[in-house]
Amino acid sequence: MPFALLKYGLTRRHSVPDVFPEPGELKDSYDIVIVGGGGHGLATAYYLAVDHGITDVAVLERGYIGGGNTGRNTAIIRSNYLTPEGVKFYDESIRLYKDLSNDFDMNILYSERGHYTLAHTDSAIRTMRWRAEVNKHFGIESELVMRGELQKMVPQLDYSEDVRYPILGALYHAPGAIARHDAVAWGYGAGAARRGVHIHQNTEVTGFEITGANGHAGRVTGVKTSRGTVRAGRVLQAVAGMSGEVAAMAGFRLPLKTVPLQACVSQPLKPFLDAIVVSGSLHVYVSQSSRGELVMGGSTDPYGVYMTRSTLDWKEGLMAHMLELLPFISEVKLLRQWAGMTDMTPDFAPIMGETPVDNYYIDAGWGTWGFKATPVCGKENARMLATGEVGDLIQPFALQRYHDFDLVGEKGAASVGH
Amino acid sequence: MTPGRLPSSAGQLIDRSKPLSFTFDGRAFAGYAGDTITSALLAAGVRVLSRSFKYHRPRGTLSAAGHDANSFVQVGDEPNVVADTRLIEDGMVVEAQNVFGSLDNDKARLLDHLGRFLPVGFYYKTFYRPKGAWKVWEPVVRRLAGLGTVIPSTPHGYYDKQYLWADVVVVGGGPAGMAAALEAAAVSGTVEVLLVEENPCLGGSLTYARFDAEGERAARERATLVAAVEGCDNIRVLVGAAANGWFTDHFIPVIQGNRMFKVRAGSVVVATGSWEQPLVFRNNDLPGVMYGSAAQRLVNRYGVRPGSRAVIATANADGYACALDLIGAGVDIAAVAELGPAMPRHDLAVAVADHGVPIMPRSTVVEAEPGPWKDTIEAARIAEITGPGTTAARHDVLDCDTVVTSVGWQPAANLVWHAGGRTPYNETISMLEVGELPAGMHAAGSVAGCFRIDTVIEEGRRAGWLAARDSGFNGAAMPAVRNDRGETGQNHPWPMFEHPKGRDFVDFDEDLQIHDLKDAVSEGYTHIELMKRFSTCGMGPSQGRHSWLNAIRINARENGISVNEAGMTTQRPPYTAEKLGVLAGRSFEPERLTAMHWRHVEAGARMMQAGVWYRPEHYGGDDRDAVIDAESRHVRGKVGLIDVSTLGGLEIRGPDAADMMERMYTWAYRKQLVGRARYTLMTDMTGVITDDGVACRLHENHYYVTATTSGVDGVYQEMLFWNAQWRLRVDITNVTGALCGVNIAGPRSRAVLTRLTDEKLDAESFPYMAVRQANVAGIPCRLLRVGFVGELGYEVHCPAHSGEALWDALMEAGRDHDIRPFGVECQRLLRLEKGHIIVSQDTDGLTNPLEADMDWALAKKRPFFIGKRSIDIQRDNVQRKLVGFEIESRNGHGNIPRECHLVIRDGDITGRVTSCSYSPTLDKVIGLAYVAPDQAEPGSTFQVRINSGRVDGRRVRITPDTFVACRVVPLPFYDPENARQEPGNAGP
After folding, report:
1. Is residue B287 domain-shared with residue B388, that is, in the same domain?
2. pLDDT of B239-298, one tens digit each?
3. By CB neighbour count within 10 A (0-12 exposed, 13-18 middle, 19+ buried), where does B190 fall?
4. Residue B922 CA to chain centroid, in angstroms?
5. What tens digit of pLDDT does each residue of B640-692 get?
6. Whether residue B361 sits in one domain with residue B267
7. What is the domain partition of chain A in residue ranges?
8. What percent of chain B has pLDDT over 70?
9. What is the 3-state secondary structure (H, E, C) of B830-877?
10. pLDDT surpasses 60 at B371
11. B117 to A315: CB separation less than 8 angstroms, yes or no
């Protein structure tokens, strides 16, 4: 029995204070206003307070904290990307993730499982080798393993040649992990709130006050909300799934296509799968949570729409493929399916940094890969908001790159084809 | 006296003439056909079915209907089987799950005593200090969590699917559903009605509930309605079938056994009934505490007496109906605790009183006292209610072995929720009510808040009539409804009595007590969704069906807001947990075989994946490299034949065909001569190469264009997408599957082909890059003189049905020229020698034509093709170049760079190898690689890193750098003068 739990049993009353104290009415003005109370927004607020001592910060959230894609993703954390920019960025995120439980004083259930991206074709083998080589170049533990070796590492999979797409090998990524997604948002939120940041839930942003917009995009000075208008020194937009809509309120466009991404979980089962398994050819990813549920996902929906309703054909296709990999789970039962909205960029890399509007910064384009970047985004956003300077790690993700044709091609590292 | 089987008259659903035997936790049991695992075990006196998720407390049936995880068991390979509803089979092997040791002696039950050290969300609060501690604790926590066990040797069962269509789908075969189906069917003889019932027979509440003091009404109504439904030709009935979700446009998966019916409905009647809700008090999870409806199910359906002496706590008429059923089953009723202010006046209550049962108004059970092994009830403590959730200090202690509760219902409105309908809370009746429904959906019966049997049937009829009308049928007048729902008092507003020592469970699946939810709110998880996620209330197998209502009430009270302000968490499909196998079905994975596929197999080809196709990788032989060497020498020296059917084929026809070509592709096609072929290169809007092929102009208004195997579907889609905007007068057809083709290549190819066609093949009549339509072996073909592999050769395309005949004819005609088939690997090598790229191998998601050294394929003067603007912008900022390279000697096999090994300069990545192979023709290792622009000069060298890591256990060891020096050479490697196109000329 861990010592930390003794106090709960030995005190009569529940001994935890309110970790998200209600901040009351909106103030007239904040140094920094963060639009969006998901993981990224809350992490930004946290690092503003912790790293920079800036606490005159409001986080505005339309619903409840972590209720968007932070609470809908399949909680996989990895850095086995394809481009040097991506690899360095996500590697820093993993480094931060590993310390979060102790930083927060809250267990985010960070669980290193090993991540396997299966290859079923020779072209996939080539891509896996490419990613392994780039990863190793930056000291990241990824390697291409062929079928025989893979079978020893993940014996649960079906390695027979009789299936439609036999497994030829995999990209093994040792640091691949899962974590409790909600706890990441809560840990950041609680840490920020404890230091004086105001987290306003049930507060919808309805527009922005922008001055000097004659001929150019102008400068943001205030944020209009369903509870009144606040003046703001700097504004960060961090609203995955709604990025295009919110940017439009600020008067600029983003090169995004928003499509639903569905996921599902099974009933809880005793542990039988440690590995995180992904197959691009089969459009499948699966891991087993610490509660024992199989957490499963697949490709994005084939059309763009702002809707989180789930579909039947998606799970039919997913399970057909899931049973190709794990034929013995046909009696396992699906408990719940859901959908989130993903802002897909043309190059499968995010959009971070400055925008055409002065003092208005953006954290968007997270498509299907935002959860794993939560800590590093928070850290870098905070630095940018505090100093006005865009750090080296996120410089490559500037919105301007689409104008300059300086893209960061990460499509080959998306977990499944989208 | 314990639970047991009633005399032979009781139990509508069991067949006492068919005894069955099964085992539970290794002990043998008997039951009857129609028994569930729960009922058969209770008949044998066994109440404990499982151990709970967190505290490993013994659990028995709560709902007898599977509305909770209490009755989860393992049946053979199948985990998490609902014992409440799974029928027993002869020889069935049932085991308890989530126990360490045995069900009776579960070592993990110690956790129940540590409960106060395990507050809500305890795992967030510990196990992380010192750093790395979670690595040690996690396996322990994981082992304790989870329920059933997956057995890796489980065979992949048989599952299938069937499409169904119905004008009206009625979900739920209770009184409302049967009435709805009958009325819909009566509107017109042509209305097709599908009636879906989850239980093994029709009847719903009529199979267990009691509506009158005499206890005759239910059976009478059931007999009448079932006979009518069975006599109706246009009602199809599916029993034992769950309508498991609602998807857009009334698309409803109905799961029956191992089959999923995918039903498209014209309109839907939701008559899914409601779930009884628990009374929350200390030890309300002891085996023997159950809903009134559970006790009635056991008695009336299965002829099982749930106990010998019961205390009933009730807030509605259902508790009295249950009391009468229990009295009839010989159960001694110690008392009825009436949660309301006074004994009700209705017939049922009067009848109970007439049996001499004490009725204690304004009272509730506040605690069940356990027996010595904590898995039985010895007594119930009853106290007077003094306010919402509060009771007087004085308790009456009544001996009993069973506590039955009837305190309210919750609509089973899953399909309504899936369809976006809402169920606001009605404060007057303390119940969620179905509000406005989506178009084409109607609700009737208790799901719609109606519990009075006459009105249920009337509302059912009206719903059926309305649904038929929604599907376009008009007939008789709309059935009248008297709008008499009887007394509205099903739900008690606050059926929760918190105990200072807890163990008052709100959520049985997740072992959550009242204080757990209050603590979650006080910790700051105030929003209903945050409370849910932090506490996991409603996230277990029953997805909140027995826990939300009380959870929302607690949340509202703790936040000082109304239940409607607290809101409800979103309910998502499926309605009940569904097997992955059922979703997967028979898993038809498309695969495409070319017309010559079996000829390759017969010739001993090793087949490989190529998109959805299979292609011959190489023919025969164990030594792959040697076979590929031999095949390539054969093509270079004699003649070879390769199946190229998987290449895409598109027909573009119409007056604007040339315009279409010039917009879609980078080169010029307007001036292309009829009868000639041209290379095609396609880029996307960002200027990235997406596909390539050859365009054959067959007529001024007709191009036949090839595309890559994996790219053609995307190319076709892209053309349609753009032309939806351009509106050019063209017809675009994907003929990939309609045509097939071969490439016959090598110095003797002309000689072979000449034998089979009258078409003149000499250099003058049929020059390089010419196209002809001609008969080959009597088959109408398109002949393309192209040189992908760098030898004289012809692609011969013909209708797919003639493909095998064409292959046979060419092989036969080539026999004395020593023709042999060659595979994809050989073709890859030959094209590499010739310096041709393969799109997606030698290009990636960002490669533009300038980087790939294909400036020659870009039309310079034309104002537009897709990607042109982007390419022009990037013209002065080329970041990398694709170059040919060679390595002087073979240098030992291990030191050949592999595709995607990196080009490193001064510790930085400047590019990568995209193709690399030993060329037997040139006796060199050759390849293509991206390098920095200033490394691209022929003659210069660059370094490729190889062998940079290995897996060691679960770690990846990054090993010291090994480099191979590569020298840039001009392309192509082979036959730069293209002399091989005329075999009379000297070759290298």
Report:
1. yes
2. 999 999 999 999 999 999 999 999 999 999 999 999 999 999 999 999 999 999 999 999
3. exposed
4. 52
5. 999 999 999 999 999 999 999 999 999 999 999 999 999 999 999 989 999 99
6. no
7. 25-105+181-254+347-413, 113-176+258-344
8. 98
9. HHHHCCCCCCCCCCCCCCCCCCCCCHHHCCCCCCCCCCHHHHHHHCCC
10. yes
11. no
Mutation for B interface: A88, A95, A324, A335, most B CBs within 10 A = A335
Q: Which of A99, A168, A178, A270 to mutate to test the interface with B (most CBs of B within 10 A)?
A: A270
The model's pLDDT over A97-107, given as tens digits with 9 standing for 90+, comes to 999 999 999 99
Nearest to A331 among B78, B251, B522 (CB): B78
Q: Identify the pLDDT of residue B10.
A: 79
Which tens digits make up the pLDDT trace of B883-902? 999 997 655 555 789 999 99
Confidence (pLDDT) at B845: 87
A70: its two tokens: 């932070």
For residues B723 and B769, state if they share a domain: no
How confident is the model over B405-421, as pLDDT tens digits? 999 999 999 999 999 99
Rg (CA), chain B: 38
CATH number at residue B899: 2.40.30.110
The DSSP call for residue B623 is -
Say how many domains are in chain B.
7
Rg (CA), chain A: 22
Q: Both B388 and B515 in a single domain?
A: no
**Two tokens at B755?**
């034998």
Q: Name every chain A residue with its beta carbon within 8 A of the beta carbon of B901.
A: 129, 133
Q: Which of B152, B519, B901 sits opposite A156 (nearest CB)?
A: B152
Domains A25-105+181-254+347-413 and A113-176+258-344 share a fold: no
- B21: CATH: 3.10.20.440
The verdict on a CB contact (< 8 Å) between A2 and B874 is: no
CATH number (domain holding residue B663): 3.30.70.1400
Instruction: From chain B, pick out residues whose CB is under 8 angstroms from the CB of A75.
Output: none
pLDDT of residue B866: 97
Q: Do A291 and B949 touch (CB under 8 A)?
A: no
Report helix, strand or coil for A373. helix
Q: Is A389 on the interface with B (CB under 8 A)?
A: no
Question: Would you say residue B988 lies in a domain?
Answer: no
pLDDT in tens, B272-287: 999 999 999 999 999 9
B214 plus B331 within the same structural domain: no
* Range 899-928 of B in CB contact (< 8 A) with A: 899-902, 904, 909, 912
**Statement: A113-176+258-344 belongs to CATH 3.30.9.10:** yes
Q: What architecture is domain A25-105+181-254+347-413?
A: 3-Layer(bba) Sandwich (3.50)
Where in the sequence is the domain holding B780, given as residue range(s)? Answer: 597-645+738-831
Q: Considering the domain boundaries, does residue B959 fall inside one?
A: yes
- Binary contact (B117, A9; C-beta < 8 A): yes
Taking contacts as CB-CB distances below 8 angstroms, the residues of chain B near A290 are 123, 138, 141-142, 145
| Residues with Cβ within 8 Å of residue A348, at least 6 apart in sequence | A367, A369, A409, A410, A411, A413, A414, A418, B845
Q: How far apart are the CA of B778 and the nearest CA of chain A, in angstroms?
A: 36
Instruction: Give the distance from residue B298's alpha carbon to the nearest chain A alpha carbon, in angstroms.
Output: 26
Residues B770 and B634 in one domain: yes
CB contact under 8 A, B138 and A109: yes
Q: Residue B406: helix, strand or coil by DSSP? A: strand
* Residue B51 within any structural domain of the chain: yes
Position A380 scores a pLDDT of: 98
The residues of chain A scoring below 50 in pLDDT are 418
Q: What is the mean pLDDT of chain B?
A: 94
Q: Is the pLDDT at B988 greater than 50, yes or no?
A: no
Could you tell me the two tokens for B305?
């007496």
Interface of A with B in 337-356 (CB under 8 A): 337-338, 346-348
pLDDT higher than 50, residue B823 = yes
Do B32 and B119 fall into the same domain? yes
* Predicted pLDDT of residue B621: 80
- In whole angstroms, what is the distance from residue B664 CA to residue A212 CA? 42
CA dihedral B588, B594, B598, B604 (to 10 degrees): -100
Residues of B within 8 A of A123 (CB-CB) are 840-841
| B248 and B313 assigned to the same domain | no
In A, which residues are within 8 Å of B80 by CB distance? 267-269, 333
